[in-house]
Design brief:
five-stranded antiparallel beta sheet, mainly beta, 361 residues
Length: 361
Amino acid sequence: MALFLSRVLTLSGRRDNARFFSSLPQFPYLLMGGKKLGESPEGKIRKHRLFDPTTEETVYSKEKTIPKKLNGQPLVGASQGWIASLENKDLTVHITDVYKPWLSSSKVISLPSIGFKPSTHATRVSFSSSDPVQDDFSVAAKFDEYRLSVCRPYWDSKWTHIETAYSLLPASDLMYSKRDKVFYFTSFKGNYMASLDLTNNFEPEYQHLRLRNLPKIPEVGWEMLDKCFMTHHLVESPSGELFFIKWYTQCIHKEDKDGDLEFIHSNTKRFMIFRQDGMSKDFCYTEDIGDLCIFLSKSEAFCLSASMYPRLKPNSIYYIGPRLGSYNLASGTDRPFTFDRLGDPSLVRTPFWLHPTDPIA
């Protein structure tokens, strides 16, 4: 434990007289990059640009010092408000809460090197705790198309890499269940669901993912969805309900008068959400998740009670990628947010929702 604790670096936030939000409330925010303001002996001084889904506006954090050990490192994933980055030279993983705008001081935790060059850009990370400094926590990540990587920093000095068969390949999701104390993921085609209990010899257990009460959609509608790109996501509600989500997006291209490709973009066509039955463990289709709202991005999906966060819309999904918007489950209405106000290049680099897990500092 002493070895692990020695890797924790605490940073202090800076203040100035510019128009920064010195004490942003603790809401979910979308990280949209930042701007360099200067340098200090500890690292670069930056302010972070964020999207506030409650007001649908861009806001800025106060000044933050980004430590030198994080300089130039790509951000590879986010879970419970913490963001993971990867050192390009020695492949060390760092996790930090420096991007949480409501914190006045931040921490960086250095995990062991993963030992190989990642083979996928679709990195996913999941933490078993929102306070990895105080808690005995575990990390699961997908750095490779054929393996899951797990680490228990208080116990292990290295990552354990778990081989998976291609047909059972973890796809776009990876989540930790506080209710069941395991990591969950789905197969590449969404036919299987797997659980990984790190107290059980690091062996995933697979089961068929059974979907019930499929929505009544005309045949032409199913044909349209079959042509869409689909990703699968798992998310757990604050009360411990488990949901399985299908996200359908459609690629749209436009040609100029000479037939040359002018642009390509994708639109969200539909979400389907299934709630797990507590008895049968089947997942049943629903268009009503009540007061809940779900946040999907390249970070670990999370679910909040809308009534706890004024102006969040219940029974909705807030998403980023391929566009930024919200989707009402009852009406099936997709509402993209205005990109003109957001600056899309930074969204490509840092498409992470930050989970509001800690008290305001």
